[in-house]
Amino acid sequence: MNVTTVWKGKRAFTSEGPSGYEVGMDATAAYGGDSKGATPMELLLAGLGGCMGIDITMILDAFLDKIESIEIEAQGTRSEDMPKGFTSIDLIFKVDGDIPDYRIWKAIQMAEEKYCAVSASLSADIHPKLILNGVSTPRP
């Protein structure tokens, strides 16, 4: 999968992937300006909640007619030290409907342990490369 992120000035960027949808990100508010998008850390939590939700609805597909609503709240605790990454993430699943709790818990477990690519990616290795003025530049 390839996603391209383009600088739009100050602390603003837009990203677009294979889906063709553009997502705006902006951290300008942290520096006293007006933001034009969500922060990357907000999007990380949104991606985790969306991934878990999609997987859960796929697992519970036969029972979706019994579910009235699903809301997933992601609460991330960040480190005090730079780079201020998440040290823990709490996911709160609010489900309304006529479905036994054990089915939802099993779906949550399966999503987290087997299917959710976002949660599995939170510990991925990152390999930066630099192309400066069209020339690949090795890391010093």
Protein architecture, described:
This protein has 140 residues and is α+β, with helices and mostly antiparallel strands. Helix content is 29%, strand content 33%. It is built from 3 helices and 7 strands; from the N terminus they run E-E-E-H-E-E-H-H-E-E. The strands form 3 sheets. Strands 1-2-3 form a 3-stranded antiparallel β-sheet, with no helix packed on it. The chain has a two-stranded antiparallel ribbon with strand order 4-5. Strand 1 (4-9) and strand 2 form a beta hairpin. Helix 1 packs across helix 2 (101-115). The longest helix has 20 residues, at 40-59. The protein is elongated, with a radius of gyration of 19 Å.
Order of strands side by side in the largest beta sheet? 1-2-3
Name the assembly state. Answer: single chain
Q: Which structural class matches the secondary elements? A: alpha+beta
Order of helices and strands: EEEHEEHHEE
Backbone CA Rg: 19 Å
Helix content: 25-40%
Number of helices: 3
The largest sheet is: 3 strands, antiparallel
Strand proportion, as a percent range, falls in: 25-35%
Write the layout of secondary structure elements.
Elements: E1 4-9, E2 12-16, E3 22-26, H1 40-59, E4 67-78, E5 86-97, H2 101-115, H3 117-121, E6 130-132, E7 135-137
Antiparallel strand pairs: 1-2, 2-3, 4-5, 6-7
Helix pairs in contact: 1-2
